[in-house]
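User: I'll paste a sequence; please echo it back and then give the predicted structure.

Assistant: Echoing your sequence first, then the prediction.
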Amino acid sequence: MNPFRLSGLNRYAVPIATVAVAVLLSWPLRPLQDISMPLMVLAVLVSAWYGGFGPALAAAVLALLTSDFLFIEPIYSIDLNLSFLERSVAFGLVLGVTIWFANIRKAAERKLREQSERLQQQTRALEAVQEELRRADRMKDDFLAVLSHELRNPLGAIRNGLYLLRDGRTENPGHVHDMLDRQLKQLVRLIEDLLDVSRITRGKIVLRKEPVDLSQVVRDAVELSRAPIEAQGHELAVSLPPQPVTLLGDRSRLAQVFSNVLQNAAKFTPARGRIDLDARQEDGAIVVRIRDNGTGIPVDMLDQVFGMFTQADRSPARRSGGLGIGLSLVRGLVEAHGGTVVAHSEGVGKGSEIEVRLPAQELPAPVHAG
C-alpha cells in the first residue's frame, strides 16, 4: 500500500490539483494541441497513485473536458462530436491501463507488505528464541558453577573427616562421625532434589494421594524446616484453621512443598527475622501463605522465581547458597496436586510472600438416623 495515499474526500483534491498543474504547464504551449495530452495523462496517473480509482476517474473526466475546452479548436467550447468521442475513448483506454497498472502495483505492494510483516514477526520470534537460548545457556553455566560449589563443600568436609579418622588425629571420633553424617545427608538431599526435578520435568512424578489433614502437613513441614530456621534465629508464627481441613494429596510431598518455601524464606531473611505461615480455607480452596521480612524479590523477577535454577542472585559466591531449584520443585508438586502457586513482593528489601492454593477434599455429608 502506498504510504502517501490519501483517504476520504481529501483524495478528490488530487485530481483537481494535478489537472490544474497540467493546464498551467500546457498553457504557454497551447498552440501545440498535442502537448496537453501527456500532461493530462500524467495527471490521471498521479491521481490514481495517490487517490485510487475514484480520483483517477475524476481526473480523466476533468482532463478530457479541460483539454477540449482550452486546447482543442474551437477553444472555450466543448463540441460533442466524433473527435470528442475519439478523445474520450483514448482517455478511457488510458484510464483503464492506468487503473490496471495501479491495481497490479497495489496488489504487489500489499503482498510485499504482508511478506515484510511476516518477516518482521519471524525475526522478532527468532530474536526471542535466541535470547531465551542465551538465557538458558547462562543459567546452565551458573547451575554448573553452583553445583560444583555445592558438591565441593560437603565432599571437602567428608574428605577431611576421613583423613582425621584414618590417621587417628581426632580426640572425638563421635563428633567427626556426626559431621560426616550431616554432610552425607546434605549430598543425599541435593541428589534427591535433582532427581525430583528430573521426574517432574519428564512427568514421571508419582503421588500417593490420600485424604490428609492440613494441620498435620504443616506440622511436618515445620519440623523439616526447624533446623535452618532456628540456625538463623528466626521467629516463626504459624496460624492454622480452628476446624480440621482435609485435602487429597501426598502427605510427604505436600510437606516438602511447604518445607521448601519455609527454608527458602529462612535462607533469604537476615538473622533474627520473622516468618509467618497462615493456612486457611477460602472459597472452596486451601490457601497457605508464607510471608517473611527478608530480602524480597525484584518486581521484574516475580514471574521467573519459580523457574529452574532461578534466584535473584545466581552467582556462586552468593550468601544464601543452594541450587535454585527449591521453588521450581514447589511449583511442580503443587501443580501435580491440581493447585497453583504465586509469589508476591513489593521489591528488594521489602520481604516476600508465597501463596499456595490447593483444592479442598469434599467430605461426604453426614447421615442422620431417622
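The mean pLDDT is 83. The chain has three domains: 8-122, 142-201, 210-359.
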